[in-house]
Amino acid sequence: MKISCISAYQVNLPLKEGSYKWSGGKSVSVFDSTIVCVETDCGMKGYGEVCPLGPYYLPAYAEGVRAGIRELGPHLIGMDPRELSQLNHRMDAAFKGHPYVKSGIDIACWDILGKVTNLPVSILLGGRFGESVRLYRAISQLPPDEMAHNVNQYRNEGYTRFQLKVGGDPDTDIERIRAVSAVLGAQERLVADANTGWTQHEAMRVVRAVKDLDVYIEQPCLTYEECLAIRQHTNHPFILDENIDSLAMLMRAKQDLAMDVVNLKISKLGGLTRARQARDLCVSMGIAMTLEDSWGGDIATAAIAHFAHSTPEEFRFTSTDFNSYVTVETALGAPKRHQGFMTTSKEPGLGITPIPEVLGQAVVQISS
After folding, report:
1. Which position among 72, 90, 231, 269 has the lowest Cβ density within 10 Å, counted as fewest Cβ atoms?
2. What is the mean predicted confidence (pLDDT) over 94-108?
């Protein structure tokens, strides 16, 4: 079996809430997603998805995915898509860095491997733990009372984990955290995610002002060193996200006792192959995880579900269902939220079937 064609499709994903706001005044209303199709010489197809959170979140942008595939794709024609380690070795040799470009290709090859073996990707990634995956809801940055109102709405839909978008004015953020904390119950969890938005002195003010509350602090500052300084001056459970983009950084953070939870995003690490390596390392080191991606629709959500469901439950802090945030359905068979949880498909591969009329014509096509 050999890769004969790699195609990419561009799909716009409008948000149900109209816009999504986070630190530094950043905002997105329509996400630009790339759906990748890897086709073999025997006619089998696998699909992946990459959807950066705008060009100002991580070193990634939507058109960069497609430009990168144009550059990388020719080096992969003729390779066996089932040989995931060899495929990733070739991608890294042919195209330095840019893990998000490689992610959709890697996910699509996992989809093919599942179809060839007649197994769901979750089984191939290690097995299915538990009956379902607990989800969090990201709460877009708004005035404190509006954020508390939105949290209450999503509680009614079954969510018990809430990721509060802060990282703005510290005084307002303190009010946001307090307003939301006031409406939560004992079994619910609140994460104040600054997305690198505070300077070190601002982050210090916030953690001291909310020291009486049960809240997780996520990625308060831009640099690893700044985050470590805050970690060393607070008793709050601590999450790192943007700074953990490789196994080397994961090992360093473990050595420094820099976090209690780590956010593993599939495309940030370069696909399911690299994400699984980081996941398994976290399990061996006893670190809990948020298992997700930067954004996406049905195909990205399916990949997240398989990744999360194949993770031991005691290390699975939370995950997310991005397809419930957007108005466009891109594939049939994707996981659907039920009372704050989702389950993976038991069909072979990712268990999804893209909708051709939504994908439209390929914007990138590389063939032998």
Report:
1. 90
2. 98
Q: Which of 115, 165, 211, 268 is catalytic?
A: 165
Encode pLDDT of 157-167 as tens digits: 999 999 999 99
Contacts of 298 by beta carbon, 8 Å cutoff, 6+ apart? 49, 323, 329, 330, 331, 334, 352
Q: Are 33 and 12 in contact (CB under 8 A)?
A: yes
Please indicate whether residue 115 is annotated as part of the active site. Answer: no
Average predicted confidence (pLDDT) for the chain: 97
> Closest Cα to residue 164, out of 151, 155, 153, 152?
151
Residue-level pLDDT at 107: 98
- Stretch 191-211: mean pLDDT: 98
Distance, in Å, from the CA atom of 266 to the CA atom of 288, rounded to the nearest integer, reads 16
Asked whether the beta carbons of 269 and 275 are under 8 A apart, the reply is yes
| Whole-prediction pTM | 0.97
| In contact, 10 and 363? CB cutoff 8 Å | yes
Q: Does the pLDDT value for residue 2 go beyond 90?
A: yes
Distance, in Å, from the CA atom of 155 to the CA atom of 133, rounded to the nearest integer, reads 16
| Residue 26, H or E segment | strand 26-28
| Beta bridge mates, 48 | 36
What CA–CA distance (Å, rounded) separates 335 from 162? Answer: 20
DSSP code string of 50-71: E--S-TTSSS--HHHHHHHHHH
Using CA atoms of 49, 55, 59, 62 in order, give the dihedral in degrees to the nearest 10.
30
**Which member of 265, 268, 336, 346 is catalytic?**
265
